[in-house]
Amino acid sequence: MGHDSRGGLRHGVGAAEAASTAPLRTLLREDFERHSRSLVHPGLHALVVHRIGFWGLSQPAPVRRAVKVAHRLVNRLVIQNLYGTEIADEAIIGRRVAIGHHQAVQIPAFAVIGDDSTLRSGITIGFTDGAETRREAVPHIGRDVSIGPGAVLVGAITVGDGAQIGPNANVSTDVPAGATAFAPPARILRPQARAQGAQRAEPDHTRTA
User: Fold this and answer.
1) Quick one: 105 exposed, middle or buried, by C-beta within 10 A (0-12, 13-18, 19+)?
2) N or C end of the chain, less CB within 10 A?
3) Residue with more model confidence, 12 or 122
4) b/e 156-169 (16+ beta carbons within 10 angstroms → b)
5) Ranges of H-type helices in the chain
6) Cα–Cα distance between 150 and 148 in angstroms, integer?
7) Whole-angstrom distance, CA of residue 93 vs CA of residue 12
8) d(Cα 3, Cα 9) in Å, to the nearest integer?
9) What angle do CA 36, 122, 152 make, to 5 degrees?
10) pLDDT digits (tens, 9 = 90+) for 111-164
11) What CATH number is given for 13-201 in this structure?
């Protein structure tokens, strides 16, 4: 299992291998470099906490339990409550992923984000009901994908390598490699048209039943 015909990571092998076989120290160093070598970058903090939680899942039971308690405490008090970022410890995040703007970023368990991708504020990556398992109900995002602020990606979809998801786009179908998905542009109403629209929306109280 690897890349499918759309250039994505339907089974998350690339990102999973990167996140699970690379040494934790290497992943953290790459994250630090990716976030402009800033120790105070909230996106870096969110990824560091996630990396440690994900690493703990593969450790022996005593270490796993200790890491789980510490991870849950820091993740809940700081990353979720203070930063507004929710990343499940079972989410699969590749190498050198950047969280450029950290507020209101949500990544569920088993979602896959490929290497060198960029996330921005207000992103929701979610699952849908109806799949046999949660693992098959979440987006799998390829390498070097750019996701704009306010974007929503839901369901068992594949976003191919190098794709761009525009601001406020609502994506529930596959996006081919190198493609762009964007929301419709804002509709501009001139003052006269806006007034006419408001007038049509007002109820007519002169009518009798």
Assistant:
1) buried
2) C
3) 122
4) bbbbbbbbbbbeeb
5) 13-21, 24-34, 42-56, 61-74, 191-201
6) 6
7) 9
8) 5
9) 120
10) 999 999 999 999 999 988 765 677 889 999 999 999 999 999 999 999 999 999
11) 2.160.10.10
Q: For residue 205, what are its two tokens?
A: 């109280």
The pTM (predicted TM-score) of the whole model is: 0.82
Q: Please, which residues bridge with residue 85 across strands? A: 105
β-pair partners for 124: 106, 152
- Long-range contacts, stretch 46-49, CB < 8 angstroms, 24+ apart: 46/79, 46/83, 46/85, 46/87, 46/99, 46/102, 46/105, 47/87, 47/93, 47/97, 47/99, 49/74, 49/75, 49/78, 49/79, 49/87
Cα distance between residue 94 and residue 91, in whole Å: 10
Query: Could you report the per-residue pLDDT of 29-85, keeping only the tens digit for each?
Result: 999 999 999 999 999 999 999 999 999 999 999 999 999 999 999 999 999 999 999
* Domains of the chain, residue spans: 13-201
